[in-house]
Amino acid sequence: MVDGEIVDETPTAALAIPSPPLPQSLPDPDYSEGGVPSFDFVRDKIENRYTTSLGSVDVAGLGTENTAEALDKKIADRDQAAKDRLAEIRRSMRGE
């Protein structure tokens, strides 16, 4: 003979798996509780906009004067200026 009792098969609230707690929203570190942005946040935003504008100017300038031919000419002019300066230094060392 088995000693036991009959148990209802429907789950009870005690057996239910508890749901995880709802995440609490963390305050945004870039703003105060009053909604005022922090100095670091504003500075970073300004610096980001500034560097973006500098990059845009650089990219915009690539299409006009910075073609391969223009760069080759600048390099050739710089090389010629260096050769001329070296020749001048050599003449001055010889006493000419």
Topology:
Blueprint: H1 39-62, H2 68-94
Protein model, in words:
By secondary structure, this protein is mainly α. 53% of the residues lie in helices and 0% in strands. It has helices at 39-62, 68-94.
Question: Summarize this, please?
Answer:
With 96 residues, the protein is an all-alpha fold.
List keywords for this structure.
single chain; 96 residues; mainly alpha; 2 helices; 0% strand; elongated
Radius of gyration, CA atoms, in whole angstroms:
38 Å
**What structural class do the secondary elements suggest?**
mainly alpha
Assembly type: single chain
Which strand-content bin applies to the residues?
under 5%
Largest sheet: none
Strand segment count: 0
Low-confidence stretches: none
Q: Give the distance, in angstroms, between the N- and C-terminal Cα atoms.
A: 129 Å
Number of helices: 2
Topology as a string of helices (H) and strands (E): HH
- Which whole number gives the mean pLDDT? 79
Please give the share of residues in helix.
40-55%
Inertia-based shape: elongated
